Amino acid sequence: MGSASPSYRGHRYPVEVISHCVRLYHRFPLSFREAEELMLERGVIVSYETIRRWCVKFGQRYANSLRRRRPRPGDKWL
């Protein structure tokens, strides 16, 4: 598998919706169905299976970026 980032072309939903769903799932201890309910509260109708597919396709990149931004011991608040 290459290191190129996956393409958002051909997806029905905008990049913002996809990235928000994937970020919700990876950042918080949510199930796919809970992420689906949160998106429904925001007015976006998306199935939990679609969120699962997005997490498989785009999830590793989001998980890596979240890991990189975690605070380290000794970091100071500004």
Report on the structure:
The protein is an all-alpha fold. The protein has a domain at 15-67. It contains three helices and no strands. It is globular.
Task: Present the secondary structure layout.
Layout: H1 15-27, H2 32-41, H3 48-69
Helix pairs in contact: 1-3, 2-3
Descriptive tags:
mainly alpha, 78 residues, 0% strand
Number of strands: 0
Structural class: mainly alpha
N-to-C CA distance: 40 Å
Q: Unreliable runs, pLDDT <50, ≥5 residues?
A: none
Helix content: 55-70%
Q: How many helices does DSSP assign?
A: 3
**How confident is the prediction overall: mean pLDDT?**
85
List the helices and strands in order.
HHH
- Percent of residues in β-strands: under 5%
Major sheet: size, sense and barrel closure? Answer: none
**Which value, in Å, is the CA radius of gyration?**
14 Å
Overall 3D shape:
globular
Write a brief caption for the model.
The protein is an all-alpha fold and 78 residues long.
